[in-house]
Amino acid sequence: MKKRVPLLLSAAAACLLASCAPTLTGPVTGRIVNGQTGEEGTVSFTRGTLRPGYVNGSAGDNVVVRIGSLAYTGRTTIVNGGVVGPLPAGWGLSLGFGGGSRLGDEGALGWGTRLDTPAPGAAAVTSRTGNLIARTLGASPRTLTCTLTVDTAEHGIGDCTGSDGAKYALQF
User: Fold this and answer.
1) At the top level of its lineage, which domain of life is listed (predicted)?
2) 96 and 113 in contact (C-beta within 8 Å)?
3) Is residue 107 situated within a structural domain?
4) From 67's CA, which of 9, 10, 25, 99 has a CA 20 to 30 Å away?
5) Which residues are CB-contacts of 131 (< 8 A; sequence separation ≥ 6)?
6) What does residue 78 show for φ and ψ, rounded to 5 degrees?
7) Domain range for residue 108?
8) Model-level pTM?
9) What's the domain count of the chain?
10) What is the sign of the dihedral through the CA atoms of 4, 9, 12 and 18?
């Protein structure tokens, strides 16, 4: 039993150290498809750059888009939050007022209220919007501009337009 104690203590210490170590994760990846030709490419975002509050500043490019033989590099900007209201997400409040009258009759006035609550167990999904601007390198660079919608898990969709007028759909 005494020989097992150091082994158990070593295993416990290793588990403790492993739980404190930073988690290394790869990039957020997805695909981009040309709406006219169907040509498909890939997109790769640096993890963490699609979250609210991320400020790129002069940190450099955080996305790589590859379509055929072209490689675009650029930056994303995500706008924090969506529509802000007086109630939490999933709740709704309606107020209604009305009145009516006709000749020879007394008038009527009415009002009503309604409070809608989220379905039990339903989690409100928060999405944010943003954009992506990327370009190729070289003497005559091409550009790609995209409008993005991103959730809190850094998954999303987008619509892109190339400098040649080509339209693309983006999923990540």
Assistant:
1) Bacteria
2) yes
3) yes
4) 25
5) 76, 77, 145, 146, 147, 148
6) -110, 130
7) 26-172
8) 0.62
9) 1
10) negative
